[in-house]
Amino acid sequence: MAEITASMVMELRGATGLGMMDCKKALTETNGDFKAAEELLRIKSGAKASKAASRVAAEGVVSAYVVADGKTGAVAEVNCETDFVAKNDDFVAFAKNVAQTVAEKNPADVAALGALPIANGSGSVEETRMALVMKLGENVSVRRFARYASTSGKLATYLHGSKIGVMVDFVGDEALGKDLAMHIAASKPKSVDASGVNPEDIATERRIAIEKAKESGKPEAMLEKIAEGTVQKFLKEVTLLGQVFVKAADGKQTIEQLLKSKGASVTAFQLFVVGEGIEKKVEDYAAEVAAAAAAAQKG
Q1: What angle do CA 17, 53, 158 make, to 5 degrees?
Q2: Which of 152, 266, 281, 285 has the highest Cβ tally under 10 A?
Q3: Cα pseudo-dihedral 155, 201, 78, 169, rounded to 10
Q4: Do residues 130 and 77 share a domain?
Q5: Helix/strand/coil (H, E, C) string of the chain?
Q6: Full residue range of the structural domain in which residue 34 is found
């Protein structure tokens, strides 16, 4: 049996990114054969990743990266199962490197991203992800990303902790960009203007307004006017340009008015909220205990 030294374990850990104990065990199983141990860990990490993939990953972080020119950048959401792992240094670093990889390499989608060499590391994004699953014991997934390459302006980002992330493509000064990104994080608009709002959402608002007006006994001739007023109010609430600026001194200035006063504009933005739209499993531990107690009584 070959002697497994600390330097051998450290070298394998550096090559795989996995835990010390996992590396030592792999070297022991392969009698000190580095290549065989590395292959064994890749096989095991793949198996562990497959098992973890079925578990809901609704926690995680949003990370952003802008290249030096200030015109190209990306925002990405990376998920895990628990908030505890979401705060893990290796997990956070992985999310940051994912955003940087997207910004620099411009992958077509998440699948294409997985095959790319990860920024600031060795191996592909997918290999790094699988190694992280092996190390942390949780499902880790790159859920989504958005990349911008501004042609006429520049990018601003804002991260509210690690749970909300915004990237804005705009024309204006740096302070304005920061204010816009913070406003988006707080007010959560659906689009820049009315052209970006889902027509089905508008139709729904119109239909509800008409039915409400009918229920309250409004005359038929007024229904369309009432519905149009409701739709316009809805559009002001869900479009960036229509919203009242969160820092407006008079409490009335809209983003559109703010931009006009500064000769600025917004081309696009992306807002990610961790876990948004993912159905989380709610654990009812009290019910589990009661069921276990009932089963024990029957036994």
Answers
A1: 70
A2: 266
A3: 0
A4: yes
A5: CCCCCHHHHHHHHHHHCCCHHHHHHHHHHCCCCHHHHHHHHHHHHHHHHHHHCCCCCCEEEEEEEECCCCCEEEEEEEEECCHHHHCCHHHHHHHHHHHHHHHHHCCCCHHHHHCCECCCCCCEHHHHHHHHHHHHCCCCEEEEEEEEECCCCEEEEEEECCCEEEEEEEECCHHHHHHHHHHHHHHCCCECCHHHCCHHHHHHHHHHHHHHHHHCCCCHHHHHHHHHHHHHHHHHHHECCCCECCCCCCCCCEHHHHHHHCCCEEEEEEEEECCCCCCCCCCCHHHHHHHHHHHHHHC
A6: 6-51
Q: Assess if residue 254 is contained within a domain.
A: no
In a shared domain, residues 215 and 136: no
Question: Taking all residues of the chain, what is their mean pLDDT, rounded to a whole number?
Answer: 88
Helix count (H) and strand count (E) of the chain? 12, 6
Q: Can you say how many angstroms the Cα of residue 216 is from the centroid of all Cα atoms in its chain?
A: 43
Would residue 34 count as lying in a domain? Answer: yes
pLDDT-above-70 percentage for the chain: 87
Specify whether 133 is located in the same domain as 218: no
Read off the tokens for 36: 């065989």
Where residue 47 sits, what CATH number does that domain have?
Answer: 1.10.8.10
Ranges 62-71, 204-213, 218-227, most confident: 62-71
Residue 285, pLDDT above cutoff 50: no
Give the model's pLDDT for residue 276.
87
Q: What is the pTM of this model?
A: 0.75
Residue 289 belongs to some domain of the structure? no
What does the pLDDT look like over 77-106, one tens digit per residue? 999 988 899 999 999 999 999 999 999 999
Across 23-27, 53-57, 179-183, least confident range: 53-57
**3-state SS assignment for residue 276:** coil
Task: Give 215's pLDDT tier (boundaries 50, 70, 90).
Answer: confident
Q: What is the pLDDT of residue 56?
A: 60
